[in-house]
Design goal:
The chain is of the alpha+beta class. About 35% of the residues lie in helices and about 15% in strands. A 14-stranded mixed beta sheet has the order 5-4-3-6-2-1-7-10-11-12-13-16-14-15, with helices on both faces. The chain has a three-stranded antiparallel beta sheet with strand order 25-27-26, with no helix packed on it. A three-stranded parallel beta sheet has the order 29-28-30. The longest helix has 29 residues. Helix 28 crosses helix 30. It comes from Potamilus streckersoni. This is Sacsin/Nov domain-containing protein.
């Protein structure tokens, strides 16, 4: 409102609603102003009061505020909601990716409204005058008092400016264009024109409109000819450049993302809408030969030709159906309501009934129906559609009666839009995906990671929402706790949850029950009902009141299903409930078996899901089926004995769960291993004991299955049987070790082919696996003593694949046992057979060595020695030597050798006195008689008790100086084990060396002996006497002159530096220069370190070679090595070298620079001299290269720092030499 200078009141209303958007007055304030306009007119007459209007922010700023409040994820839902409010039955969304009408033309300023890329929205209802008015309002709506309108063309619609700057609406007989930027220019924001006047309007171009819309949803030239369009089209050009309204840019990716989010909640979007039946999404592309999905689908085609550089084109425009060339409107998504059993008519009648309500209405309006959806989604990259269907039970309620005063007052308040209209829905046949209930205000509120309600149903109501319609208004925690909130919106939402929605929820549950009586698939419907009952533990705190009220409504309802008498619905007072929540395992199978009993005995049982039982138990009392009830039923008759074994086991589990052992008396439910059942009884005179088997003993007693409890029962059941034993209930007994041993022997007698002399079990049920289990039991229970006289040791005959069982008291040794270091060789087995020992060819690796070492011997050191010990004790006890005589006389030589070799591998610590005594008596060793040479040695077998002198002298490849028992390494090892004194081979070698010096051995024998020593040097290197004798023996010859030398006379020829240093010197050995001999020579004293005396001697040789004019290459190599060695010596011990340097100053041993170095001027001559070597005092360092290089010899001192210091090569050159070079340079240049 405003006044002129004359104080006259200006008009409050803007009559031009079709051309200018209304001011954004707050709705409450506007109502207040209008309702009190008389008061304001009265005040205006006072000359002292000046009236003026409220200042409003610019339109663009208001729209930006709306965009800030309304996120773009809801804009498509707002469009759908508006279409439903208008009564439309179908909505179609199109993304048009063509680039059309892009060229600006001042003649046609409205072309920008028909540009593409764009989002196009169609619905099949037309605008009325209120719609045209409402779409131009901000912060207000024309349907605030409409019983069935949610908010058509209110703030939500303005969120479309997220993606566009210009809005075009075509409906019925006109076009409306909205350009919010006109407000900045002081011009009208909206422009409207009749369809029939478009051709006559100079600012409009029909061609621009048809470029965008021709053939789309019935739009064509004829629409402008007729002046009517039977529907509504919204055209929103996408914003591609930032504007003052928004900097958000939209392209195909963003639009398709909006489409995708809409598809994800597709069925939710239509579930509670009042009229909408179909939702379709199209993409307008440029595909060829696209075929319509269905015959009634319209395909729009626009053919473009003659494109210019600006992207505009002259276009021929046509509309067709079916197959076409050019851009094609391609259907990618379709959701439609399937009209099943006149569902749509029911919904329409419900809405009509509500519209006719008046203040005299005396009954609630209720409508329930099954709504089915068919969804078709086009597979990416193909023409194939994936389809799926869903069916929901929906109950709609418009509450009229039985309302609390608070609720009734709110519904009658004209200033508020409170509608007692609610809906509850649940899927009829839910899939396996978890179902989370959601909250709707006809369209779903924004989804959150956690369910807003925690309910298993969807709730729809006229909730009081936040201004951006994203959240329900709730009181704060403090207000809710105090109950002092008076805000009408908060009170309304609370009353919806406590009065109307619980009642509708209860009606839905009743509807599900009635639906089960009309249709097949009873179990699915029972599941649907129970699933639809809320789980109080999962609900949001704010909804507890809803649950409490709901349960009060259904407490006496027939909502409990019993399968008795063919299945029927009953209330809680007639039901017998089964409760298996406390069962930790086999819940399903136990419940089924108990149910069989209840059915068999005609009981009205009801089995509730856990969440239903938990929730209902807070509001009603249940009669639960108990063990005593089951016991009573089983005693009525013996029908239960015909149950399947698994059912009997489940009944037993049921009793066990409650530890109701007393109720098992005289029930045939005790399971035996042979598959039968016997009665539980206290009287052991009538029944035999039934033993409990552990997992390890389950298969130990073949043929005796009727004596044992069924072993396959669960561990929990076994615990109960053990508790029963502890309490001395019935005939169930524990299996003691003594009983187990007797039963195993009984089983062997029962199943073996023979039992007396040999226990042959081949071909019987006592297979190897059984033997293994028996031994596992024996060893686990540590009861081997109970089986000493029971045949349980397997003997395998590979020749005929038979198995014989032996007793532990039999004397046995195993030939091979996995994990042992030295299996028994065949020769050892044969030798043992001559000592009356029985050898088992093989033995299972699953038997424990430690557990059986007392009874069975194994091929290990300790076990084998125990066997020898036992043999000796046995010989002493019997008092005869028959066994020894048989061995010494008849045992083959090879078998003896194998035995010696094996005995030698035994650990020394394992040997006992008895075992050593036995071995001493066995003829196992070879004696060598005294002879003149090694070609005539004589051998014979002898025991150590006959000759205890033994040596390994046979390894020496020449004649021995003694008469001894010749022992190979195996003999020596065995002798060592049994403590026989033997001669030291090293001493024999020393004695041979002494004999060599005395000439008792030929040169050939000496060479053979030395090679033998070197080959075995590792054995002798620590013997000082032997090493010393080798050091003083001159057995080496020098390389050049073949002089006989000791090791310490020569140098190691391996280092290249020594080879270079001693070039042309007789310093290296002629033989034994390869490995491993050269290493031995080094250890014997072969020289590797050069002394200063050696260097002086080399310097003298260099001096002689220099005088003899040997080739420079040879001298150079030797001199260089000499200088490097001198440098090393000086570096390590400069003082010692300096004290003796005078002896080198007179010798020509220094290699000087004969070649001009790189970088030295080419014109200047280099010093020349015929000799290769010079005395140390005749040269200077190359640091003086620019002073005297032409007149004096120089040495490259980069690697000879200490030599330069020793010989003072860095001293200043004589002045006359410097002047001489200067003259040379002057002369040269």
């Amino acid at each position: 409102m405003d006044t002129s200078q004359g104080g006259k009141r200006q008009n409050w209303h803007n009559d031009d609603l079709n051309y200018a958007m209304q001011p954004s007055y707050q709705p409450v304030l506007r109502k207040y102003i209008y309702s009190h306009s008389g008061r304001y007119r009265q005040v205006q007459t006072d000359p002292y009061i000046r009236e003026f209007g409220l200042k409003q922010p610019p339109l663009i700023q208001q729209l930006r505020k709306i965009l800030y409040d309304y996120q773009d994820d809801a804009l498509l839902k707002e469009i759908i909601q508006n279409a439903d409010d208008a009564g439309a039955t179908e909505v179609k969304l199109v993304y048009d990716g063509r680039r059309i009408n892009r060229k600006c033309d001042e003649r046609f300023p409205f072309r920008k409204f028909f540009q593409a890329p764009a989002l196009c929205v169609y619905n099949n209802e037309i605008f009325n005058e209120k719609d045209w008015e409402g779409v131009t309002l901000i912060y207000s709506s024309v349907k605030e008092n409409d019983l069935l309108k949610v908010g058509r063309f209110g703030l939500g619609f303005k969120s479309i400016f997220h993606l566009t700057d210009h809005v075009c609406i075509i409906s019925d007989n006109r076009i409306l264009l909205i350009d919010p930027f006109q407000d900045e220019k002081g011009r009208k924001v909206c422009a409207s024109i009749s369809l029939s006047d478009v051709r006559n309007c100079k600012l409009f171009s029909v061609e621009d409109i048809l470029k965008a819309l021709n053939g789309i949803f019935g739009m064509s030239k004829s629409v402008f000819d007729d002046g009517k369009y039977p529907g509504t089209i919204f055209w929103f050009p996408l914003r591609e450049r930032p504007s003052s309204l928004s900097d958000a840019l939209y392209d195909q990716h963003k639009i398709e993302s909006l489409f995708k989010s809409l598809q994800i909640e597709s069925t939710k979007n239509l579930l509670f809408l009042k009229y909408l039946e179909r939702l379709e999404i199209y993409i307008l592309g440029t595909k060829r030969n696209s075929t319509c999905l269905q015959g009634d689908e319209v395909v729009a085609n626009v053919e473009s030709v003659n494109s210019d550089a600006t992207g505009e084109s002259t276009e021929s425009i046509y509309a067709r159906t079916g197959v076409s060339e050019g851009p094609v409107l391609e259907l990618v998504f379709k959701l439609e309501v399937v009209d099943d059993k006149n569902m749509l008519e029911k919904r329409r009648n419900f809405l009509k009934h509500i519209e006719k309500l008046n203040e005299h209405a005396n009954s609630d309006v209720v409508c329930d129906y099954n709504i089915s959806f068919k969804e078709s989604v086009k597979t990416s990259g193909s023409s194939v559609f994936d389809t799926r269907a869903e069916t929901w039970i929906v109950l709609n309620l418009f509450k009229v009666t039985d309302m609390s005063p608070s609720l009734e007052n709110l519904t009658k308040m004209s200033s508020c839009s409170y509608r007692p209209y609610v809906s509850v829905a649940t899927p009829l046949k839910p899939d396996n995906r978890p179902f989370k209930g959601h909250v709707f205000c006809f369209l779903p509120l924004p989804q959150e990671p956690k369910s807003i309600t925690g309910l298993p149903v969807h709730l729809n109501a006229f909730f009081a929402l936040s201004q951006n319609r994203r959240q329900i208004k709730w009181p704060s925690a403090e207000l809710e706790e105090s109950g002092m909130h008076t805000d009408r919106d908060l009170v309304w939402n609370q009353l919806l949850l406590s009065e109307i929605l619980p009642y509708a929820y209860a009606l839905l549950l009743r509807r599900i029950v009635s639906y089960s009586q009309e249709n097949t698939g009873l179990q699915d419907i029972v599941h649907t009902l129970y699933r639809s009952i809320p789980d109080v533990g999962m609900m949001e705190r704010r909804l507890f009141k809803l649950a409490k009220c709901l349960f009060s409504f259904i407490v006496n309802d027939n909502i409990f299903f019993t399968a008795n008498n063919g299945g029927r619905w009953i209330n809680s007072s007639k039901a017998v409930f089964t409760n298996f929540d406390s069962f930790s395992e086999d819940i399903e199978s136990i419940s089924k078996s108990v149910v069989k009993i209840l059915v068999m005995y005609n009981q009205n049982y009801v089995q509730l899901p856990e969440h239903v039982q938990r929730s209902l138990s807070q509001f009603m009392r249940f009669k639960y089926f108990a063990p005593e009830d089951l016991s009573r039923l089983l005693l009525q008759n013996e029908q239960y004995k015909h149950l399947l074994p698994e059912d009997k086991l489940n009944l037993l589990k049921y009793f066990f769960r409650y530890e109701s052992y007393i109720f098992l008396k005289d029930k045939e439910l005790l399971p035996l291993r042979d598959g039968s059942f016997t009665i539980f009884s206290y009287d052991l005179r009538k029944v035999s004991p039934v033993y409990i088997l552990d997992e390890d003993t389950v298969d130990l007693f073949p043929g005796l299955e009727s004596k044992f409890l069924l072993p396959s029962i669960s561990s929990t059941m076994k615990k109960h049987f053990k508790a029963m034993i502890k309490s001395e209930y019935f005939q169930v007994s524990p299996l003691t070790m003594e009983t187990a041993a007797c039963l195993i022997e009984h089983s062997i007698r029962l199943n073996a082919r023979s039992y007396e002399e040999k226990v042959n079990i081949s071909g019987t049920c006592l297979e190897e696996s059984w033997i293994q289990k028996v031994w596992k039991f024996i060893l686990t229970q540590n009861c081997i003593r109970l089986f000493e006289n029971i045949p349980v040791v397997p003997k395998y005959e590979k020749r005929n694949s038979e198995i014989e069982l032996l007793r532990l008291t039999d004397k046995l040794i195993v030939k091979d046992y996995p994990g042992t270091l030295h299996p028994l060789p065949q020769g050892v087995c044969e030798a043992l057979s001559h000592l009356s020992v029985t050898v088992l060819e093989s033995f299972p690796n699953w038997l424990s060595l430690d557990a059986l070492k007392k009874y069975i011997f194994f091929p290990t050191s300790s076990s084998f020695v125990m066997l020898l010990d036992r043999l000796q004790i046995e010989l002493q006890r019997k008092g005869n030597n028959t066994v020894l005589e048989d061995f010494n006389k008849n045992c083959p030589i090879e078998a003896r050798k194998e035995l010696v070799k094996y005995l030698g591998k035994l650990e020394t610590s394992s040997w006992t006195v008895n075992s050593k005594t036995l071995v001493r008596q066995l003829k196992l060793f070879t004696e060598s008689y005294n002879c003149q040479n090694h070609h005539n040695e004589i051998y014979s077998l002898v025991s150590l008790s006959e000759n205890d002198k033994i040596t390994q002298a046979k390894t020496i490849p020449i004649r021995l100086p003694y008469r001894v028992i010749v022992a190979n390494p195996d003999d020596a090892k065995l002798a060592l084990h049994i403590g026989v004194q033997k001669l030291d081979p090293v001493q024999i070698n020393i004695d041979i060396l002494k004999n060599v010096k005395q000439g008792h051995y030929s040169k050939e024998e000496v060479n053979i002996f030395l090679l033998f020593i070197f080959d075995n040097y590792d054995l002798y290197q620590n013997n000082v006497d032997l090493v010393q004798n080798l050091k003083i023996t001159p057995f080496l010859k020098s390389r050049i002159n073949s002089l006989e030398c000791t090791v310490g006379d020569l140098f190691d020829p391996t280092p290249s530096q020594l080879q270079q240093l001693f070039l042309m010197e007789d310093k290296f050995p002629k033989s034994f220069c390869e490995e491993p001999y050269i290493s031995i020579l080094r250890r014997l004293g072969l020289k590797v370190n050069v002394t200063f005396d050696d260097l002086i001697e080399t310097a003298a040789i260099l001096h002689r070679l220099s005088v003899a004019k040997i080739t420079r290459e040879i001298i150079g190599v030797k001199a260089k090595a000499f200088m490097q060695m001198m440098e090393t010596k000086a570096r390590k011990s400069y003082g010692a070298v300096e004290s003796r340097i005078s002896s080198l100053k007179t010798l020509k041993c220094i290699l000087w620079m004969k070649q001009k170095p790189t970088g030295f001027p080419k014109m200047i001559p280099w010093f020349k001299m015929d000799t290769t070597l010079l005395k140390p005092t005749e040269v200077l360092s190359d640091r003086h290269i620019h002073l005297v290089a032409s007149v004096m010899p120089l040495v490259n001192c980069s690697n000879y720092t200490f030599l330069a210091k020793l010989f003072q090569w860095n001293r200043l050159p004589p002045l006359d030499r410097v002047l001489e070079q200067l003259e040379t340079i002057i002369t040269t240049y």
